[in-house]
């Protein structure tokens, strides 16, 4: 602790939300609300693991709404981009680089890589914009004088709420010549209706509505949710990660203002 800052890995993302929401749980349960409250501090959020929130959902009663605590500077994320990681492979034919033989798999991959770079899916949204595709890794070749017969590359796909990941996968396979294998399709984009009572209350409180480009447990929730919490995502996963004590105190007031007495 130094000058109002609490330092430590995970203090900002998302330890501050964990302790803040626990205190809010205690406050809201001190009087009768129109809804029942469940507080869940789940693990494996960074890897979307089966022992995290997805393993807990089946043990819970019917859930009508959820709050996901993530560092958003207490602004209201009403939509979140999904994630699909693709392993792609272009195939050629090996040959000696000094002779006019073989089929270079790298050259075959270039056309598909260019497509991933340039293609824009037609459906875009106000908060999340277009689907974003980024080639982030590439690997080919065994030595300098051998024409590579295989070129593999990885594509990071960030979907918006207009597409399910399965739908995007089918469209991508129609457009490229390489083989495309998804590591998972379960982390689709989410969005909460803007006329939901919690969103309406947030607007009344002057909270900014936005779409989050980064993934969280929100992607695994099969019911409406928002993402909101103390802290700044720019501090996450940094050597000097910290949270301001003042941010936690202010966040408690905002959470209580959102949910105390609301009719869900």
UniProtKB/TrEMBL annotation:
GO process terms (BP): L-arginine biosynthetic process
Alphabetical list of InterPro entries matching this protein: Bact_exopeptidase_dim_dom (IPR036264), Peptidase_M20 (IPR002933), Peptidase_M20_dimer (IPR011650), Peptidase_M20A (IPR050072)
Ranges of residues in domain Peptidase M20 dimerisation: 78-177
PANTHER family per record: ACETYLORNITHINE DEACETYLASE (PTHR43808), N-ACETYL-L-CITRULLINE DEACETYLASE (PTHR43808:SF31)
Keywords: Hydrolase, Metal-binding
Gene3D superfamilies in the cross-refs: 3.30.70.360, Zn peptidases
One MF term in the entry's GO annotations: acetylornithine deacetylase activity
Pfam family, one: M20_dimer
Protein EC: 3.5.1.18
Annotated organism of origin: bioreactor metagenome
Protein name in the entry: Putative succinyl-diaminopimelate desuccinylase DapE
Primary enzyme class: hydrolase
Record's keyword annotation contains Metal-binding: yes
Coiled-coil segments: none
């Amino acid at each position: 602790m130094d000058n109002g800052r609490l330092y430590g890995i995970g203090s900002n993302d998302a330890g501050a939300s964990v302790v803040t929401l626990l205190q809010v749980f205690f406050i809201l349960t001190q009087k009768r609300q129109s809804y029942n409250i469940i507080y869940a501090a789940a693990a494996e959020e960074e890897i979307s693991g089966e022992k995290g929130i997805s393993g807990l959902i089946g043990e819970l009663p019917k859930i009508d709404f959820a709050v996901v605590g993530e560092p958003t500077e207490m602004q209201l994320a009403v939509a979140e981009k999904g994630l699909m990681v693709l392993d792609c492979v272009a195939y050629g034919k090996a040959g000696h680089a000094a002779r006019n033989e073989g089929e270079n798999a790298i050259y075959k991959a270039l056309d598909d890589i260019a497509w991933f770079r340039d293609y824009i899916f037609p459906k875009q949204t106000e908060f999340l914009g277009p689907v974003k595709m980024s080639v982030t890794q590439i690997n080919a070749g065994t030595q300098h004088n051998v024409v590579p017969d295989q070129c593999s590359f990885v594509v990071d796909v960030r979907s918006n709420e207009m597409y399910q990941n399965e739908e995007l996968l089918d469209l991508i396979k129609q457009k490229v010549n390489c083989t495309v294998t998804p590591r998972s399709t379960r982390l689709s984009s989410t969005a909460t209706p803007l006329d939901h009572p919690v969103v309406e209350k947030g607007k009344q409180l002057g909270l900014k509505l936005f779409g989050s480009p980064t993934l969280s447990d929100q992607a695994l929730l099969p019911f409406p949710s928002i993402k909101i919490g103390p802290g700044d995502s720019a501090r996450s996963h940094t050597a000097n990660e910290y949270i301001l004590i003042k941010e936690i105190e202010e966040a408690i007031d905002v959470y209580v203002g959102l949910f105390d007495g609301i009719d869900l």
